Amino acid sequence: MAPLEPTQPDCVWRNVAGAGKAECKIWQFPTRVSRCTDATNVTGFTWALTQTWQPPEGQVYKLNFDAAIFANLLASVVGVIIRNDRGQVMAALSLKGGVVQDSDEAEVVACWKALEFAIDAGFSDLIVEGDNATVMKSIASGQTDLSRLGNIYDDIHCLARGLRYMEFNSICRSANGVAHSLARYAKHLDEDIVWLEDSPPPALEALLAVSRLRLNEELEFTEL
User: Fold this and answer.
1) What's the whole-model pTM score?
2) pLDDT tens, 179-205?
3) Scanning 7, 43, 65, 73, which has its CA 20 to 30 A from the CA of 98?
């Protein structure tokens, strides 16, 4: 088993009925599965190094996003997928973004684009997941960011405050395969592509992989 590394802290920023604030402890050296419970003890946040994608509970939707930078492109690419509590695709997006300086900027811009897309599509109860721990920790803190990306972080928080329910979670890359597939597909696009209540063909293999993993986990749990 590979040693644990303190590079993927837990983070969650919650917005309930517009009262957004950060409610989380950061575990720099987690156990195989670490748990973070907010101060009001309403819900908990779990993150595992070997995490697979898990559906949201109830009437909340889960949005996963990812960004990538290709050396031969003067632009970043973004992939977004929104699924319900049954794992069904409600909306998806592949787009080619603008020029960015590094991966952190690409991820922050991707989160901003993902939230705009979700709001335009009519979603108001969201769990947003990304696999860049540094970016997600900054977003989840809810604090003013004084870096060159501060204005984008502010825009993300402004969008989040307009939603009825909002969480920002940091996850492992293994739980973000569908969004990653959509981001890579955007490399070949000249214009944005949106899918509504339909599984995007560029991510079918990744979606099937998620379904197989979840089925195997359910079978293992049943055997126990």
Assistant:
1) 0.78
2) 999 999 999 998 999 999 999 999 999
3) 7
